[in-house]
Write a structure and sequence with these properties.
Layout lengths: L2 E6 L4 H13 L5 E6 L10 H8 L3 E4 L6 H8 L5 E5 L17 E5 L6 H10 L6 E7 L4 E2 L2 E2 L5 H17 L2 H4 L5 E11 L2 E8 L2 E8 L6 E8 L2 E6 L4 E4 L2 E2 L7 H10 L5 H14 L4 E3 L1
Helix pairs in contact: 1-7, 5-8
Amino acid sequence: MKDKILLVGANGNMGSNHHRVLKELGKENKFDLKTCDISGGADYKDYTEAYEEFKPNKVVIATPTSSHSELLQYFNNKVYSIFIEKPLVDDDSEDYYLITKTKIMVGHIERYNSMIRKVKELLDGKSITHIFCMRCGLPTYINDILVKDKNVDKDLVIHDIDVAQYLTTHLKLLNKVRYTKSTTFTKMIEDNQADIVTEINGVKCFFHADKTSPSKVRTIKILGPEYIIEGDYIEQTLLLNGKEVKVEKKEPLKVELEMFIKDTFKKPALVDAVNNLKILKGKHITYI
């Protein structure tokens, strides 16, 4: 039986990208695709009508974060799996989705970047002391007035928190410990800017993000005993101790959506998505 996939929020910036990639993937994977957007210009305007008529077994949610809880509550336990853009929710209900029947994949796209996948390989079995991340640009103007964004941490820094979790999970086994703690030491949030200093799985992490820089920058630097790794998310380039490491470039969104379609995503990624929100809020977390 073919899957039936419903894309909710098809006309937004991320939604249009999801629509493009899903149509590409549909050439190689057999599924029926319908779209839904409150603004019109899609197969449906109302997601409840879309569900009742189309009866999807998989749903992709690419709507603003403020609508995530409403949509998750509606589709949860109605469909087999849900892909939802990050962050999972913004109302402190994230723990609930760890125990639902419906499988949930959160769109933390950077962990599917080919450069980060290669970094994960390089770090296998290695200790890590520090992670530095910089995520800059671009400012948004309306009528030549700079828009003040107070959610740069939720919009941008959360990507780097997720990557830090993804890259450091092996340290629990390497250090032969069952419990590791993550505690936020410093968090400075201003209009269009966020700086967070924290510790994740025993690694000191420094995150900077802003929407004021004149150019778009997405970089990561990882330090450990006798090595420095430097990566560029946009160019998907990588240096190890100053020497280039070959990276097979792929579109991250295509990689993650293909995992969703083929049902190859795992629950630990959802646990990370829940903990990303807790780290962002400065809550003390114990990993088991």
